[in-house]
Amino acid sequence: MGANPRRRRAAAALVAATALLVTTAACGGGDDAAEDGQITLTVDVFGQFGYEQLYQEYMAANPGVKIVERGTGGNLDEYSPKLTQWLAAGKGAGDIVAIEEGLLVEYKANPDNFVNLLDHGAADLKGNFLEWKWNAGLTADGKHLIGLGTDVGGMAMCYRKDLFAKAGLPTDREAVSKLWPTWQDYIRVGEQFTAKRTGASFLDAATNTFNTILLQTAGNAQGYSYYDTSDNLVVDSNPAVRQAWDTTMDIIDSGLSGKYAAWSEEWVSAFKQSKFATIACPAWMTGVIEGNAGPGAKGKWDIARVPGDGGNWGGSYLAVPKQSKHQAEAIKLATFLTSAQGQIGAFKAKGPLPSSPQALDDPAIVQATNEYFSGAPVGQIFAKGARELKPVYMGPKNQAVRTEVENAVRTVELGQRSPEQGWTDAVTNAKKAAAK
Amino acid sequence: MTVQLDARPPVAPAPGHRRRTPGVRLSRLDTRYSPYLYIAPFFLLFAVFGAYPLVYTFWVSLHDWDLLGSDHPFVGADNYTRLLADADFWHAVVNTLGIFVISTVPQLLAALWLANLLNRRLRFRTGWRMAVLIPNVTSTAAVAIVFGVLFGREFGMVNWLLDLVGLDGVDWKSNRVASWVAISAMVDWRWTGYNALIFLAAMQAIPRDLYESAAIDGANRARQFWSITVPLLKPTIVFCVIISTIGGLQLFTEPRLFHSGTNPIRGGPLRESQTVTMYMFENAFAPHYNFGYGSAVAWLLFALIAVVATVNVLIIRRLGGRMPGGRAAKGDSR
C-alpha cells in the first residue's frame, strides 16, 4: 500500500476532489435545511424589540425552527441603509426584517422586494391591528401588504424627580401632569426650573421636542406633516409644521435646551450625569432611557402626561423579504410575533406599546407598571391614549426631509442661525432633499 | 515599471534551427509567454476589484439609479451637470481640501523632524522607532471614537484643559475650522509615525561621507539637514505626498465617527466637516439612495485626486529645484 507513487497520487487527487465536493455542498447548503430537517430563521431588528422570550416559546412549540436575531440594540440610522443594500443586492437580508414607520413608505415604493402577505392569508389578521396601523402596511392600491404592525409610539413626558425636587417643583406624576396642559405651560415650568440653577437643563435637545410637537400638531390637524396625502411636499405651506417650529423656537429662546445632539455620545453622557430634567417620551423611549441612564438612576425617573394632546411617534412593522428561502415559515413567525400575545410579551420585556386593540385591552397591559420609572403605571399612561391615536401620514422622502428640518432646528439651537434664517434653510434644504 | 522591463523574454535562439520539434516549440512559447502568466494574477485581481468597479461606477453615474428601484433610466451627463451646480458638493470639496492641508502639511514636517531625531545615535533606538508606529496599528474606528469623546463640547477633555488655563471651550463639532483641526489631529496622530519611518529608511540610505565632508566644510546640523538630507529625500517626499493626498482626499472614517447621533454622515448640522466621500455616501445610501448621483460624486472625487496629486508633485519639484544638491530630482522622473 502506498508503494506505487502513481496510485498514491491518484488517491490524493480523489481525496482532494471529495473534500472539494463536500465543501461545495456545505456552501450550497448554507442556512438551508440541515440533515435533521431543522431550519434557521433570521430576524433583523434595530433597538429593542423585546422578542427573546417569545423566540424561546416559539422554538419550544416548533422544534424544527431555530431563530437568530441580529442587530439588537443597534441604531436605526445604521440599520436602514444596511437593509436597503441587502434588498438591492437580493442577498443578505433576514427572513424577517423590521421596518420603522418613517421609512416604510420608501420601501413600499418598491413592493416587489417583499412577500405580499395578502397572498398568504394575512387578510384574516386585519382585526388584530388598529385600523390605521394595518392600512399603513398596505401599498397605495391596497393590493400588496408589506408588513404587519408591531408597536405604536404613544406619547408621554419623562422627567427626573430628583431634579424637580431640587428646583422646588412638585414631583408627584399627577401634580406634574397638571403643570403643563399646553406646550406654553411647559415652557413656563421650564423657565421656573432654569431660574433655580440646578446645574441641569430642562430638556435634552430641541430636535426631539420639535418632532414630538410636530407629530402631535399634525395628528390633531390634517393628519400629515411634511407631505400631504397626495405626496406633495408641503413643508412650507402646512400650518402644523410652522406651528411646531414656532413653539420650538420659543423653547430655544427661553434657554431650556441642553443642546445635546440626540442619540450622540454626548446625549448618552448627559443621561448618565443627570444633565437634563425632562425628555419627550414615546412608549419605546422608556427602554432607551433605562439603557442610557443606567441602573444608578432607577427610581429617579417618572412619567407624566405629554403637554398638548396625544400624538404618535414611531412604531414599526415586520416584513418578509422575497429573497427569504423560508417564506412560509417566516410569515408564520411574523404572525406570531405581531399577534396580541406576542405584542404583550414584547411590551413586558422592553416596553414597545402594542398596536393590537386586543392587547391594549388586556389586563397584562392595562395593569402594567414600570419599576425603573418609580412604578409608573405605564400601561394606563400609554395604552389609554393608544386607541384614539391620530396617525400622521408619511410621504415618500419623509426621512430625508425630516433630517433637513431637524438640522435647521439644531443650527438655531446652537446659535449658528437666527430662527428666521433657520426656517429659510429648513424649507430650501427640504425641497432640495425631496428632489433627490 | 523597471521590473517589467527587466522581465523581457531572453533573446531568441540562434537562427539555423528552423525546423523545430514540438518540445522546442513548447519551450519557446514558455519563454515568451510565461512572464505574462507570472504577472497575470495582479492584473486579474486589479481587473476584477479595480477596473471593473471603476467602469461600472461610471456606467451607473450616467443613469437615474434608485438603489431599490427596478428600472434605471439613462440620463446621460445629467448627474454631473447637477453635481457641478450643487453647493453642498463644493462645500464638501472645500472641507476635504481644508482638512487635507491642515493635516498633511504639519504631518509631513513633523514626520521629517521625527525621522531626523530617530536617525541620530539614541539609547533604545529600536524601541523609539517602534514606538512611533504604535498609533498606526490601532484601529481607525477606535481612534475616531476616542477623539470624538475627547473633543466633546461639554464633557470633553480638550475643553476641560482649555478651561483649566482660562480659555473658553470650543464647540468642536459644529464650528467649521475647529472640526477640521480636531479631525486633522486624529489623522496626524495616526499617520505621522508611519511617514517618519519611511523618511527614516530613506535617510539611512544617504551616504555618511556626505555629512562628514559637510561637517569638515563647517556646516552645522541644521545646514546639513536642509542641504543634504532634504534634497536627497525628495523622491521619498514625493511618494509620501502622493500617498497622503490619496488618503487625505478620501478621508471618511475619522470625520464619520467623529460625529455621533442622528445623521452623522452630514458631518455636523451645517455640514461643517463633511468630506467628499461622506457626501458620496449620503447620496448613494441613506437617506437618498440615489446611486447614480453618488457614483457621479465618486468620479469627480477621482478627478479631484488626480488634479491635486499633480499639483502637489509640481510644487515639490519646484521646491526641490531651488535647493542646492537637487540632483536627486532624477530619482522621481521614472
TrEMBL record, chain A:
InterPro entries cross-referenced by the UniProt entry: Bact_solute-bd_prot1, SBP
Gene3D superfamilies: Periplasmic binding protein-like II
The organism of origin for this protein: Micromonospora globbae
Upper taxonomic lineage: Bacteria, Bacillati, Actinomycetota, Actinomycetes, Micromonosporales
Taxonomic superkingdom: Bacteria
Region of interest called Disordered, as start-end residue ranges on this chain: 416-436
UniProt keyword list: Signal
Annotated signal sequence range: 1-28
Coiled-coil annotated residue ranges, if any: none
Name of the protein described by the UniProt record: Extracellular solute-binding protein
Automatic annotation (TrEMBL), chain B:
Keywords on record: Cell membrane, Membrane, Transmembrane, Transmembrane helix, Transport
Cellular component terms per the entry's GO annotation: plasma membrane
InterPro entries, per the entry: ABC_transporter_permease, MetI-like, MetI-like_sf
UniProt xrefs under Gene3D superfamilies: MetI-like
PROSITE patterns (UniProt xref): ABC_TM1
Annotated localization: Cell membrane
Name of the protein in question: Sugar ABC transporter permease
Biological source species: Micromonospora globbae
Lineage: Bacteria, Bacillati, Actinomycetota, Actinomycetes, Micromonosporales
